[in-house]
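Task: fold both queries, return tokens.
Query 1:
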Amino acid sequence: MSALACCVDAAHAPPGYAFSAWDSSLPSPVNFSGVPPAPTTTTTTSVAASENASHWSPSLSSSLYNIDGWGAPYFMVNSFGDIVVRPHGVDTPVPQEIDLLKVVKKASDPKSVGGLGLQLPLIVRFPDVLQNRLESLQSAFDFAIQSQGYQAHYQGVYPVKCNQDRYVVEDIVKFGSPFRFGLEAGSKPELLLAMSCLCRGNPEALLVCNGFKDAEYIFLALLARKLALNAVVVLEQEEELDLVLFLANKLSVTPMIGVRAKLRTKHAGHFGSTSGEKGKFGLTTTQILRVVKKLEQAGMLDCLQLLHFHIGSQIPTTALLADGVGEAAQIFCELVRLGANMQVIDIGGGLGIDYDGSKSGNSDISVAYGLEEYSLAVVQAVKFVCDRRNIRHPVLCSESGRAIVSHHSILIFEAVSASLSNAGSVTPFGLQYLVDGLSDDSRADYRNLTASAVRGDYETCLLYADQLKQRCVDQFKEGSCGMEQLAAVDGLCELVFKAIGVAEPIRTYQVNLSVFTSIPDFWGIGQLFPIVPIHRLDQRPGVRGILSDLTCDSDGKIDKFIGGESSLPLHEIGGVGNGGGRYYLGMFLSGAYEEAIGGVHNLFGGPSVVRVSQSDGPHSFAVISAVPGPSCSDILRVMQHEPELMFETLKHRTEVFCPLEEDSDDCGVGMGKAALASSLAQSFHNMPYLASCSLSAMTAGGFYYYSEGDFSAAADPAAGDDEQQWSQCCA
């Protein structure tokens, strides 16, 4: 007997497939072995989860998701199956590890039970990790400089475009002050931001002014220098020099000038498109020579002090890095020979992140080196060229934004539902209804399908299953087949596919998130980030799934994951575990670019944000700041709408169409015009994402996120007039 089929004797049909009235001209329905029945009770699910847990461990989950590969030294799985953050990297003792699930519960629990009442999605920032990244980068360069006998120092700058959040930039300036760490700006708002922040930084810190410039940009950069900030105007275009010379004279300030060189060195990955001779930025060697000549004629060649270049983000190997740095070092030495007062070589960005833990040099999402290897390659390349040319070693500068901020920020979101398998919908009634409506050709396909299943002829079985399904689809389009029949054949075919093991059914998990707002690089350039459940990792994931967001857009899904996977191992929603029935996922290494690039597609705004620091409290952490995500009103204002006027319009409409008293049932669930107006006001105030509210809160007339008690007060007419309620809701 084939493993694919059981006995087809009608008198002993398997449970769930025997009919009291079966068409005797057709074979009895086939039960495909190896397919467990769908669980019918919560107890069954809990027992199954417990059995899985007994054969699973956190270490197996860590290996499955390669957490040690991409997460070290900041993320790991603890013995409870939760992901923990090690804020000080390898130097973090176990009592100082921060359980990410506890942070989420603190942020999202109602205020009535000690939580912060924030709505998900949620960005969790760890300033301690940010500090550790800065210190690690500085230490790597310091070690390379000392070990190679390099005769200058390293002082980096943070490119604020990576993440312009106020606290991120201010923390970097504070943590980097002992190392003379500075900032890089590429636009006028970024320059204003950097000037303000560096007023509280190290006076020797560099302020590198990149990007295309007009007179106002150059004026601000020169003003920064007049204000005793160490600002460098980096020429991206040759004609910018004329503005620098004119405005410097007008402001009576001696400028510090840099040039950005277009190198011949180029890497072939996606992030290398800005490098090479045809790159978007920088000056050719011919243009650099003209700049030198013009400065010499103006008697200001000593103002040229910095050489900048950028091979591209995510440089995959140190071999490519050393090639580019070596070429730039030759240009640096040539500028010294021509009489320029060269002091600094700025190697730009490119220090990559290993997003998938593969440590591969042949991928856009991985790199084949660490901080130590990167620093050593830079120091050796510059030293080799300068020593051979007998040129004094320059100060080394890098713009390593991605490497600094990626690890410190985690996006947390909830999977709120999941698609169900069609196989569970195969019922005796469904199959009988299917057979009754089959055409002669379809009946033949069904007979052949059953016979193939009995023989164990998998390939033929699949052929007839596909053929049967297509015939039924054609019948449905012609109007000769009903929806029940179509559903039955879908369930039957999925049962066949699952039993044969052709492909594991992929579930779709709906997540409370907008891909376009929170993960724009995935949608835009296919950038992959590690996405992992943050809890229940002591249990075996029972299904594989893709993630579908809230937007009304077919691109609003995540169906590619690290490791070349097209689905993600996931747990059943609502199973046993530490999440209290909720299922939380985290996207890691997401601290660079995503927040700045994200839009408001479907009017979904950014997530709530908490900053978490390691502390000596009972849970090893303290929330040092918490900011709710933008409300519906905030997002509407971005698109030039006026929420207050919108509310007044809808409130007036309520008075016209629902003029009944508060205790009337005619306007739905006992809500009168006052309660309806209050609910409208609260909807403007709430975030646009799905809210978790109880049925009692809904019947009370409002839709709050964990705020039933607060809503009762807000909905009370005695609490104040409508204008007061609106001002409270939208404050």
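Query 1 returned. Query 2:
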Amino acid sequence: MRMAPKRQRRSKSASRRKEKGQPPGVHPLALTSATQELFECRADEDVTRESPYKLLRKYAIIQDIKTRAAVSDFSPMEQIVLDYAEEEILLVFDKDSTYGQNFYLDLTAEAKHRLTKPQDSELFEDEMRRTPETKKSTSLITEKEIEQESVKEREKLRLKFSRVQVEIGTTVTLSDYNVADSKHNYVEFPSYQDNRSFIRVMQRDCGIQAVSRLRSDATQTAWKLKKNDFTQYSPRELSQEEKEAILQSESLKNFTMSVTPRVLLALQQQEIADVFVDDFEALGSAAEAGDLPGQTSDLLVLHQGFTDKMHTKDRKISSINWHPTIPGVIAVALTTKKGEESMESAVFGSQPSFIVFYSFSFPTNSQLLLRSPGDILCFEFCPSNPNIIAGGCINGQVVLWDISAYVTCLQGSQPSGTHSSDNKETFNFDEKKVGTPTVDFCAMSDVKATHKARITDIHWLLPSVQVSVAGVPVENTSNISVQIVTCGLDGTIMFWDLRVPTMPEQPLAGTMQDQKTTGTSWSVPQPFTHLRSTWRPLFKIDFSGEHVPVKFSMDLCTCQRNTVKEFSETLPDYSQLRIPPANEMKVLEDVNTKFYTGTEDGEIIYSDWKLGKDESGQQYSPKPLFCVGAHLMMVNTVQRSPFFQDIILTTGPLHFAIWKDGVTEGPLVKSQWSGDECTVGCWSLSRPAVFFIGKANGCLEVWNLLESSIKPVHVQTHVTSSRITCLKPWAVSLKKHFLAVTNDLGVLRIFEILRTLYHPSKNEISRMEKYFDMEKNYLKFWREKEKLWSKEKKVAEEPKQKKVEPSRSAKSVCTAEEEELKRYNDFKMLEESILKEIGLW
């Protein structure tokens, strides 16, 4: 039943070939470009007019028909290909479309013979190009069938409707009439299935989708009520008589005599060699063996964990710093979480926040608290006096603390916040605890002359440098750090001086009034009485609202290496220091005043804070030397390398980048998007090629540029259970290094860095210098190539621009813009009218 229609189609196709004059065995075929590329028979490339032949495997054609079905170009020739006896079929490229298509299949017996003898190709082409003779057409159906199928005009019917003669002229009354009330007034012809004629559906287009079977199920577990409980026990001891009986027993004497030789032998071996030493670690680390990846699974080992449930509840850690002189003491700044911040936190004294000090000696309690009027987003220890701490508040004010009176608390042998009990046998639940010492701030900037938005970064200037009122770097003869640099979200960077001004300023009445209204009383220590209510910025850099700085890095700022430093026994008294007059200051000409800034929009700005002068002599803030949108969102880290002062690491949510001073073409190194948000980054203190990147998923990446600049050499998973907020390394000694990691749950964790990460490889500094120089040269070469390509592109486009008609002048462009504006206004009016009609305007 299925083959009969195919034989009919073959007969029809044969008749068509006869009508067109095609030789028997030749079948025209249209091949698309996709099919040509699949069978490697591309027109004018694989087959040409001179070499038009291509042998195709019969099996490949059949597979294409099965795979692509009706889409295949060989589907019309399916039965012809199946009936062909040979394994290879000759495909001929018809350049002139002699038979109506671009290809044809030659299934004649002489096809392969003609291919094996190329000398007869010209005769074959002449024979194929010969004009076919006309033949008389033969009808395949009878004339009677044609007569039956033809449409003829049938005889027209004539109908006449008339009214009864009696009713002619009478009045007509019309009324509604329901046809369904009477079955005799209409005839219904419902549709029904005719069993005599049935059309079988041979092909149907339908779509299917395979989905996994779903099953709904439920389970129930028995829930037990949880409750807090405690127990107290005391050890059960033997009586004195039982102890004496055991000591005098023969079994104990025999046991002692049997194990004594073995114990003595073990003690002797321990004195000769350490039996607990790790021999594999003593053989050498991977860093010494050529800076290859280490074999340790975890390069960071958890050393200590800190948390204060009283002060860290619903808060996150925004900044972290190690104490410069007291080993094992670390301070963290706590801020409210992003979703819980309110305007009240920016008001003086409404919601106090704290900087918490922890110590390795007493990890269960906080050792010291620094109270502030609002959340502290950043803080730093003074490099000249570690007892002075400067912080940036959420309301834009700069806050100072003096912890000179509480140094013994941090160095004490007994932890703060606890009280020793004489009863050591049982717990004393009625014992009163002594609270953690709290230190109030000793100075705060004037609220009317400070940042108008939150302070996001703060740094101390070097002790040997200071900045004048005009923003010029001058020499600091006192060799004491007296100036602070801050940046805020109001688009400004401010310089602050802790010394007494030459002409003391009068306190503002508004500030004193604000103090009275807030109801807060705070005592200012003697060193900072001159800053009370009169502390204003010395110099300000304003980005004029174009950029919002978040993080910055200056060459004159202290590079905190977090090592134990030597400080003089006599700490400076800031109340005795004075700002020298401008004529006594020595200008430093060789000081680098350029700095990097990361903005809220992910831009990296390289600018100079020195004020320029125009032709009239007036000073103005210079424009940035370059501005690059390196990070798509807010920059969270801008940090200089402790080994190279001209190398800067910046991190954003998507990737990190490494920059070099003076290179304006772009970053030397830029990472790819790894799928996880980068939250913070920091350099290693002992290896120039190593730095750490914190992630939002709690993982920590360790990068080594000498090994790979594409992927990290190690990824430490599950460092924290939430988003990493801060990273701070610290070197206790040459063989002891720690890394502090904080998260947005207020938890601080200290990890010990293994030898592979802190022990530098051979000539690592010189190798890194060569690496940065190579990246710099490559970047410049790439930028020159881009400029060359752009020039070539412009030269290639110039002839096209010359061909443009001269009628396109500036006037026509203006006319087109006016027409577009008119259309837009008409559209807005139409939109307004429609919204008014439907009541939405």
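Both queries returned. Flag for query 2: The mean pLDDT is 78.
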